[in-house]
Structure of Dihydrofolate reductase:
Amino acid sequence: MKRDIHVVAAVANGGIVGHEGKMPWHLPPDLRRFRQLTRERTVVMGLSTWESLGGPLRERENIVLCPEPSRVCEGALVIDSLAAAAAVASRSGPVFVIGGHRPWVEALTVASTLHLTRIHRDFVGDVVFPSFDATQWREIHREVGEHPIDGVPTRYEFLTFVRRATVTGSRSHRPRPGTTTLSG
Ligand SMILES: NC(=O)c1ccc[n+]([C@@H]2O[C@H](COP(=O)([O-])OP(=O)(O)OC[C@H]3O[C@@H](n4cnc5c(N)ncnc54)[C@H](OP(=O)(O)O)[C@@H]3O)[C@@H](O)[C@H]2O)c1
């Protein structure tokens, strides 16, 4: 059976998602949303994201994408491709791809849903969320909030997008060119 794939990410200005193996911010409302979305589900992540966690995410099945499937990650399954990870995921509901860059790139080609937390602030970072074709996605939910990060009030948005149905041969559904880079 083909699994429903969802992408989850928290993204600051310029698409920044990580720095030196860590998240550059601590945003409790985003952590709560992440937990609500992924609890009791399967989460799939790259090896660096796994290493940044320091152990498995509780109450979830953890799958780590790694080119060496013989590697041991205690508390997680280690798999060498996203397709194989989706095939072995044992929890019900969607499979959540939670980062980093390459897992998101691959998941964006097949995912039905994107859950993005947009953090309206500049951070220094070395990993970005991939650019994606915004015309392929329809926003279905937006919730705006504000919370201090390092003592500075910071605006954020919880955004949910679903993939638009593509209708071959229909002019009205022809996608417009352009990509979203989540910059600014
Ligand atoms: N803001 C957020 O929401 C968020 C979420 C998650 C992580 N992060 C941050 O992002 C950074 C980590 O992301 P990253 O992009 O550097 O690393 P990553 O994707 O987590 O891990 C990279 C490793 O995973 C392997 N890998 C990735 N995709 C694979 C695939 N499809 N099949 C097999 N192996 C695969 C890579 O193998 P190869 O070397 O062969 O490519 C590499 O060894 C950290 O700073 C972390 O804190 C932020």
Remarks:
- The radius of gyration is 17 Å.
- Residues 9-10, 17-19, 21-23, 45-49, 52, 65-67, 80-82, 98-103, 106, 127 surround NAP (CB under 6 Å).
